[in-house]
Amino acid sequence: MNAHHFSTLLEHPEDRQACWGRISESYFGALRVQCLDTGTFDARMDAYTLGPLGMYMIEAPSHRVARPDTRQEIVLDDHYKLVLQLGGHGHISQRDREFHLHPGDWSLYDPRVPYAITNPERSRLLAITIPRQQFKGMKIPDLHTCEAHTPAMRGLYAVLGSFLTSLADQLPSLPDAVGRSVSDTVLSLLASTLATHSDEQFGAHPIPGVLKARVKQFVHAHLADPALSLDLIAQQLRCSKRYLHRVFEDEDQTLDRFIWQMRLERCSEALRNAAGRRISVSEIAFAWGFNSSAHFCRAFKVHYGVAPREFQRREAEQALASAALTH
Fold first, then answer.
1. What domain range includes position 72?
2. Which residues does 171 contact at the CB level (< 8 Å), separation at least 6?
3. Neighbours of 216 (CB within 10 A)
4. How many domains does the chain have?
5. Separation of alpha carbons 50 and 96, rounded Å
6. Phi then psi for 58, rounded to 5 degrees?
7. How far apart are the C-alpha atoms of 76 and 57, rounded to whole Å?
């Protein structure tokens, strides 16, 4: 998995805290970063991109990060942020809520609202940035934590925490080709926890935003199934097709179009990753739920402006040109 690596060790000791502040600002916006350790501030961050998600492996001595002022817009105002404690302990506070993070604990919060995160000892963290549009229509608390009060929530929160912990360990060795699939899994698990939390608060009938998240989760999980359709979704999620259409009224596209767009995106990624290898366009189309190669080719050309084979040829040429520039 490609990553950008940052470390303060190359800086003069007196400049390391300022360096860490610049690194943090470039990805998370102008936050107040305070070093609490009197020793050498040796910190590092590895930044990855998985589909729509930003993932950041952070290791740093005792420090505090805060956003006390919301008058100035920052990079993350269009995102939610999730922090998983991998090592050491942390404490997050936002408005009237506080939560202590032990290894394996996570917290999802809205960075537009003033908050503070303190790590009183050297810690390892996985920070994930999530575009707000991924949970459009869902009511998400300012600070949502893995603190659970029912067996169902404890189980879901434990699954999400375990998956993210394992993902953090494997990030450096994952191939780029699986980035989108992994991000879909993260979003699906998180959507499940948010939806269940909403059900427990508002009753068994999910609000439209929660149902929309569940629909998208179902679509991502069944894109490769040629039988995926509005009928199947309505049957599995126990609602009418008419209500599905209503739930998606505020989207830029219908649910049918959303399914086809997701399939075309997966096919384009597969074509890009298969450049130079003997994998046919038909194989890729059928692997992602299309049941007609001709239909796939027409839809692909309408969406991307070129036929699949031409797209694949261009991607292969760009890859060769990039490889030549690095040698």
1. 4-221
2. 1, 3, 46, 48, 55, 57
3. 23
4. 1
5. 33
6. -125, 135
7. 17
- Dihedral-angle region of residue 213 (phi above 0 means left; psi in -120 to 50 means alpha; beta otherwise): alpha
Contacts for 167 with CB less than 8 Å, ≥ 6 apart: 55, 126, 182, 186
User: What is the full per-residue pLDDT of the chain (327 aa) written as tens digits?
Assistant: 788 999 999 899 889 988 998 898 889 988 888 889 888 889 999 999 998 999 999 999 999 999 877 677 777 788 999 999 999 999 999 988 999 999 999 999 999 889 999 999 999 999 999 998 888 767 777 788 998 888 878 888 999 999 999 999 999 998 887 888 888 889 888 887 887 777 666 554 455 767 787 788 788 888 999 999 999 999 988 888 988 888 888 888 899 999 999 999 999 988 888 766 678 899 999 999 999 999 999 999 999 999 999 998 888 887 777 666 655
Residue 23 lies in a domain: yes
Report the first-to-last Cα separation within the chain, whole angstroms: 20
Scan for tokens 């694949």, then name that residue: 312
Distance between alpha carbon 240 and the CA centroid of its chain, in Å?
A: 29
What is the distance, to the nearest Å, from the Cα of residue 98 to the centroid of all Cα atoms in its chain? 24
Residue 194 and residue 213 in contact, taking contact as beta carbons nearer than 8 Å: yes
Whole-model pTM: value is 0.75
CA–CA separation, 13 vs 20, rounded Å? 11
Is residue 300 domain-resident? no
Other CB atoms within 10 Å distance of the CB of residue 157: 21
CATH number at residue 128: 2.60.120.10
| Local structure of 139: helix, strand or coil | coil
Instruction: In whole angstroms, give the CA distance from residue 106 to residue 294.
Output: 46
Position 243 in a domain: no
How far is it, in rounded angstroms, from Cα 55 to Cα 86? 14
Determine contact, residues 70/112, Cβ cutoff 8 Å: yes
Q: Is the residue at 119 inside a domain?
A: yes
CA distance 101 to 87: 10
The answer to whether the beta carbons of residues 70 and 114 sit under 8 Å apart is yes
CB 145 within 8 A of CB 106: yes
